[in-house]
Amino acid sequence: MRTKNKTLGYLLPVFVLSVFMLIIYGAYVPHKPAETQRVVCIKFKPGTTSEEIEKHMRDFATLKNNVNDVVAYSAGRVQKSEGTQSDYDVIHYLTFRTNDAAKQYASNADRKKFVKSNEGHWDKVLEMNSSIER
């Protein structure tokens, strides 16, 4: 009986240390970097209410959950500078892990559904992909 307790006494710290090392390893192993960023700029039609714009922002934010390999998403309203006029009202930034994922975004069924339900409020849209340089 004493040998069994002694063995468990040695194995428990080794096990705990191994789990700790795996957690640290997972936190610091470099992951594949993102390759492509997509910028979506939207100008709303005159008369579009702030509630409709907020709905658009919420719907686009949930859209990112249905698209594969989205590494990051952010969005915001265009800030008006004194003496300048902005061509767009909101900007969405999508960062993709691979170039193929960015290409598949355009044909995503959820994206098409989002566009169909919101395009009635849009005056113009600009969408561009760019490579991410390191």
Radius of gyration: 24 Å
Spans where pLDDT lies below 50 across 5 or more residues: none
Look at the helices and sheets and give the structural class: alpha+beta
Question: Kindly state the mean pLDDT as a whole number?
Answer: 85
Shape: elongated
Largest pleated sheet: 4 strands, antiparallel
Amino- and carboxy-terminal Cα gap: 60 Å
SSE layout and pairings?
Elements: H1 2-28, E1 36-44, H2 50-63, E2 70-77, E3 90-96, H3 99-105, H4 109-118, E4 122-131
Antiparallel strand pairs: 1-3, 1-4, 2-3
Helix pairs in contact: 2-4
Brief rundown of the structure:
The chain has about 130 residues and is of the alpha+beta class. It is built from four helices and four strands.
Care to describe what's here?
With 134 residues, the chain is an alpha+beta fold. Helix content is 43%, strand content 25%. The protein has helices spanning 2-28, 50-63, 99-105, 109-118; strands spanning 36-44, 70-77, 90-96, 122-131. It has a 4-stranded antiparallel beta sheet. It is elongated.
Summary keywords:
25% strand, 4 helices, elongated
